[in-house]
Amino acid sequence: MSKTRRNNDGGYPTSAESSPTPMKRSRNGSAAGSSSGGGLGSVKLQLSWKKNVEFAGEYFADSKGYYKAAGFSQVELLSGGGSGTSVESGLATGRCWAGLSAPTITAPAVLQGAPLKIVGATFQKNPFAIISLSKNPIESAEDLAGKKIGVQDSNELVWNALLKANGIDEGSVTRVPFQSDPPMLTSGQLDGYVGFVTSGPVRLRMEGHDATHLLLADAGLPLVAETFTVTQETIDNERDKLKAFLTAEIKGWKDAVADPARSAELAATVYGKDQNLDVKEQTEEAKMQNELVVTPDVKANGLFTMTPELIEQNIASLAKAGLTIKAEQLFDLTVLDEVYKADPSLKLS
């Protein structure tokens, strides 16, 4: 999902305080020190967007002490989005130790020589969708012909890949410049727009409009999202530390999936309290994003896991977006496999 750059329609101070113990900063966004209860030290996790309910699992992992129980003195959650540094750039410069990104963003960096890997995927389906009104629904890719669709310049890669995946002539669809302005849809200037399924339909319904959506993942473009991205160096030299981190993340996301209301409260009143988030809206978004996080395969194999079939589908989708890359260049799910092998109880019950 190239929140490729994300539009505002997708849309997110940690409560953990910095350790008072002086730290020696490493080049990869981690710190070593003598903080009590944190043998693994402090690390920075860069989020893909501003702090909203999309990162509920991280909020639970922090607020319920899962990070500290795993051995970290602190996992600092860095906001993403806007004109900020990308996760991939942050990993390259040492600004962060790990990050939440997407294959459409990480793959180009890898193809340019960045030693990065995706080690897990929170969203098994990309949240990108074509949002439309129920009175004029876009229910399949074929329905796009003759329509006016709002697409941000930053989402051009995903949009073009969708057209290619479905054999649609771009001339048959009118692409309209769009800056996350839903009134363009409700006023009839657009027939639909590319936005996040977790927020666009929710917001429209709360404003009294009957909205529907077509997930790009269900329209020939399956891609995962909110992918845990790290350097190859971390996989090779900090494997146990990475496993501890993923264990805490799994515990946090199990809680988030089970309690959308609390997820919304943490987002609106604690971690994203400066974002003017609406608790009711965030609750509905949390419920909707659970459908992207939990699939039959995830129920069988565990949160963040990807089946070989899903990996290959992502590689094929990237090729449609003009990004030719091999699975082994981009994905390494072996660390996560080891986490679940060591503790099968981490799987969803």
From TrEMBL:
<protein>
    <submittedName>
        <fullName>ABC transporter substrate-binding protein</fullName>
    </submittedName>
</protein>
<dbReference type="InterPro" id="IPR015168">
    <property type="entry name" value="SsuA/THI5"/>
</dbReference>
<feature type="domain" description="SsuA/THI5-like">
    <location>
        <begin position="52"/>
        <end position="262"/>
    </location>
</feature>
<dbReference type="GO" id="GO:0009228">
    <property type="term" value="P:thiamine biosynthetic process"/>
</dbReference>
<feature type="region of interest" description="Disordered">
    <location>
        <begin position="1"/>
        <end position="39"/>
    </location>
</feature>
<dbReference type="InterPro" id="IPR027939">
    <property type="entry name" value="NMT1/THI5"/>
</dbReference>
<dbReference type="Pfam" id="PF09084">
    <property type="entry name" value="NMT1"/>
</dbReference>
